[in-house]
Design goal:
2,3-Dihydroxybiphenyl 1,2-Dioxygenase, domain 1; Glyas_Fos-R_dOase_dom; Glyas_Bleomycin-R_OHBP_Dase; Enzyme related to lactoylglutathione lyase; lyase activity; VOC_core
Length: about 130
């Protein structure tokens, strides 16, 4: 068994697709109409056959509440690995990304947390 898709709730699929592809650099793998919404997945350009990230609409009341509460508590919804967190932090800052936690050493790892503009906090980590 392996993880093939993981999802995050987003307030606006078009805005999320733009942020995750143009700002973060993920590549769109699927964009399929499913009625009112779309099945949009992205992959890392470094692992195009790897786990897909699904941009899931947060239109269900439980999803909206879950997303808002995590954000309010400062809890990231997922974590992305980076080779050089300081270079990635600089690159994203230059693209206007707002960080809630600057690169911070936590034991053996260094983490940072940013706002994805779609209702989520995302953590990056350099192991």
């Amino acid at each position: 068994m392996k993880i093939i898709v993981t999802s995050i709730f987003v307030e606006d699929q078009d805005q999320a697709l733009e942020f995750y592809s143009e700002t973060l650099g993920f590549e769109k793998k699927h964009d399929v109409p499913t009625g009112e919404f779309r099945w949009i997945t992205l992959v890392s350009p470094e692992d195009q056959k790897g786990t897909e990230l699904l941009l899931e609409p947060n239109k269900h009341p439980a999803a909206t509440e879950y997303q808002k509460k995590l954000f309010a508590e400062g809890i990231p919804v997922t974590m992305f690995g980076v080779a050089d967190i300081h270079a990635e932090y600089k690159r994203l800052m230059e693209k206007g990304v707002k960080f809630t936690i600057e690169p911070t050493k936590m034991g053996e790892n260094t983490i940072a947390v940013f706002d994805d503009t779609c209702g989520n906090l995302i953590q990056i980590i350099q192991e």
